[in-house]
Amino acid sequence: QKQVVPFQDGNASMKALLGGKGANLAEMTRAGLPVPPGFTITTEACLAFFKMGNRMSDELFGQAAAALKQLEKQKDQAFGDAANPLLVSVRSGSVSSMPGMMDTILNLGLNDSTVLGLAALTNNEKFAYDCYRRLIQMFGSVVMGIDAHHFEQLLHHRKEKEGAKQDQDVTAEGWKSLVEDYKKCILAQTSNAFPQNVHEQLRMSVEAVFKSWHNQRAQIYRKLNRIPDEQGTAVNIQSMVFGNRGDNCGTGVVFTRNPSTGENTFFGEYLINAQGEDVVAGIRTPLPIAALKHEMPEIYEQLLEASRQLEKHYKDMQDIEFTVENNKLYLLQTRNGKRNAQAALKIAVDMVHEGLLTKMEAVGSIEVSHLDQLLHRGIEEEAVKDVLAKGLPASPGAAVGQLVFDADTAAQWNRAGKTVILARNETTPEDIHGVIAAEGVLTSRGGMTSHAAVVARGMGKPCVCGCEEVRIVLNEKRMYAPNMVIEEGDWITLDGATGRIISGIMPLKEASMTNELLLMLEWADEIRTLNVYANADNPEDARIARQLGAQGIGLCRTEHMFFSPTRLPVVQRMILADAKEDRLRALAELLPMQQSDFEGMFEAMDGLPVTIRLLDPPLHEFLPNLEELQRRHAELTYDKSGSDLEREEVAQLLSKVQALHEANPMLGQRGCRLGIVFPEIYDMQIEAIFRAVSDCINRGIRVLPEIMIPLVGHANELKIVRELVDSVAEQVLGKDNLRDCPYKVGTMIEVPRAALTARQIVAYADFFSFGTNDLTQMTFGYSRDDAEGKFLTHYVDQKLLQHNPFQVLDTEGVGQLIDLAVNAGRLVKPSLKTGICGEHGGDQESIFFCHLTGLDYVSCSPYRIPLARIAAAQAFI
Ligand code: PEP
Ligand code: MG
Fold it and tell me: Would you say the pTM of this structure is higher than 0.90?
């Protein structure tokens, strides 16, 4: 089994084995691009390393040594050779991109004697010792685990001693002394010396990179991005090229298109005379790539050419790291560039127009999570007064929050329910929990490709970076803007689209659809076979849903129509009524209200199906809370406060609430059970529906009503209610008119028994709609109201469950019930219509499952519709 693969022997299809970076380096090498040679230690080797208790096998050693020999030949240099030393970088490369999450060591192969060789070869002692001290610094912190600030302090002292402002101002002698300082520091901190044996350096570095798979920030990132822990990381060993050898050297990052706007323009940044990490770390603020055109015109053209070639090759926008050494261009890495939603859409649409992608490929390339971002918020411009400062517009969207200056505080305040903006000089991967907790991120240093920018963009969070107008003083917990001092806890607004930082709380406005999105949705509609309906309970939501592309209403929860302040008292009167006549009187009052609701819905959905669910929740939900009533009752009784009338009323209410009280209301008298015990309630609702139907038909509206019965668990339940529906329909519409109204009656499948007895139930159903919220609750036996807070989050954290089953459909268990019910139902009634209306209807993975199971539609909240349309198309692809 090959655990080490030279770049020239790999290719892009070997990503699972070589990691993303390794596979791309191999692919670029094969395409003849100028990649410094090297080799990849595979993810399988990493997993074997973990299995052996974090040890490398002799076998792996042997293979690595052989690859190193080959590399020495290719480069005509030797590892550890004092006269002609080969230097390498060691970098992690996971299968799914995890930018900055794991460790990197550069300049490996330097020691007290090879540094002399490097100095002699390059005729540049200052450069050689700068490389050496960087190695010791990285090796010390990454491999030997010494806190980075020790090295930073020593560097700071050295610069002070030399009177050097910038790192470049330090002399060769300065670097030499610093090397000695660093070595002493390592010895003092770990009782071990910095290893002079270069093979020892290499072995320790590879091990450290493997182990960094398990560091905290990598674990958090994986969880956030749903990357499996079992993947492991590959390690890439690559011969070094130097961007910091002088002024004909440099290093940078380019995107083949603008990752913020999607425009087809070359985009990126570079630094002259700098080494790799300087750009990404945001320590020096780099120049825009356009400036390279003037500084190094030939290199610029080569880079442009290579980037075109790579984009064509990968059929996607690329993020390329390059280094120029003595006026020669090297490509160190390429990957599909991270981008925000707006850019992703524009790029995909443009690529279709350019003939680079088919429509199907374009729709397939859209990350569904990106669509969330597209409905991004912006600031109401009229409200903007105090612009404190302006930085780079790194990730669009607007965020309002209280300012904090460190990641821990951000996380703490967030847990306490506050909304925060995290401001840092620059962020590092260590700050990831703060970035997650924050509404938006602000940095005073670093460019558009800095850590903060890349991470925030990936998360769809607003970010302003490189805002050098502000000064953040950590120990004062203050930020100095040109005309104002902002303290920790002060409210600010970030505008990630323009880079503005604004004092105070700005009103925000919601985003609108772009032309690119509309076009993409159109293409998705051409592809998908799964219909997308909306869950909507009022005409306004129905209209929005229709605008967003809903092909019907899959769930109208009629109880939501009861919750308005004018209606609730009538509903309560209906519930509290002792005599049937009183109940009927209250219901008669409710009837016209419901009727007008339904008319509004039918009007909004003219020509499209509207699924109306009869009353579902237990009645006590419409009455005041039991404990509050008990408290009030006690007050009134013992303190003798309040009037006799109030005492009387409260006592009455209390006894009714007590009578309705159930130990397990979710398993109690709700859904059709309620409608069967109190048929007058369903009777009223059905009458209201058909009066509305009749009225709308007379007004020329095309009405397709579908009446849905909740919580059925036995065929007889549906039988009874269906008979009620049919008889009321006939009464209201009359036999003749019935023909003009092809209404449907169906049931929700949300009790496991309903799924298991679908064959019987289907006799009375024209459609099945899977209520996966309750179906999940009852299949797992997890309370949908309490489980998350009590144990479910713990289960997911412990990976006992891969996902929260209330978010992502449990295809293994709940899915099996769905599959079973669909098949059983269709066997008896091939025309049976099937859909899903639980929250899962708006979740990508669940939508995939619905497509595969052959459901006719998914129904989700209106704002999820664009996402569902794309996901449904992707499920088909
Ligand atoms: C369901 O149970 O999935 C459902 C859609 O109904 P509700 O959420 O109203 O119980
Ligand atoms: Mg339900």
Answer: no
